[in-house]
Amino acid sequence: MEIDYIALFVSDVARSLIFYRDVLGFRFEKPAKSDGAEGYSGKLKIGLYDRRWLSKLFGDRGEQMISGNPFLLSMTVQNLDQVYQELCDRQANRLLGIPIDIISPPTLMAWGQKILFLRDPDGNLLEIVESQN
């Protein structure tokens, strides 16, 4: 068994699409709809859906809000310092009108990985890890 799809339920599909496509570089080949968009990060398929889908999928249980952010989406890159600089440049130039919430710049962790932490427009935790190849 392996994970092949991740769905994020967001408050603003258009804003999240700009963030994941134009800021992080995910591929969205089909036009987005107002209630959702599907694309790829490498081979992993990712969906961005309006939070109203939760009640369609789960009935009354979907209307219960989960407090906090119970997951972390992790991505790997070859050159983390370069990616960090690109994110800072986009933020400084106010490209796309989407704020980039960087929690911590690239940091060498005690276990030897270099990691950058940030949040998407809905506050979901993301990490970008430098590949150790």
List keywords for this structure.
2,3-Dihydroxybiphenyl 1,2-Dioxygenase, domain 1; 34% strand; alpha/beta; 133 residues; 3-stranded mixed beta sheet; 4-stranded mixed beta sheet
Oligomerization category of the chains in this entry: single chain
- CATH top-level class: Alpha Beta
Number of domains: 1
Order of helices and strands, N to C?
Answer: EHEEHEHEEE
Query: Averaging pLDDT over every residue, what do you get?
Result: 86
Low-confidence stretches: none
- The helicity comes to 10-25%
Walk across the major sheet and give the strand order: 4-7-6-5
Shape: globular
Backbone CA Rg: 16 Å
Strand content: 25-35%
Task: Write up this protein.
This protein is an alpha/beta fold. It has a single domain (5-130), classed as 2,3-Dihydroxybiphenyl 1,2-Dioxygenase, domain 1 (Roll). Helix content is 23%, strand content 34%. The chain contains 3 helices and 7 strands; from the N terminus they run βαββαβαβββ. A 4-stranded mixed beta sheet has the order 4-7-6-5, with helices on one face. A hairpin with a 5-residue loop joins strand 6 (114-119) and strand 7. The longest helix is centred in the middle third of the chain and has 13 residues, at 80-92. The protein starts with a strand and ends with a strand. The model has no long low-confidence stretch (mean pLDDT 86).
A few lines on this structure:
With 133 residues, this protein is α/β, with parallel strands linked by helices.
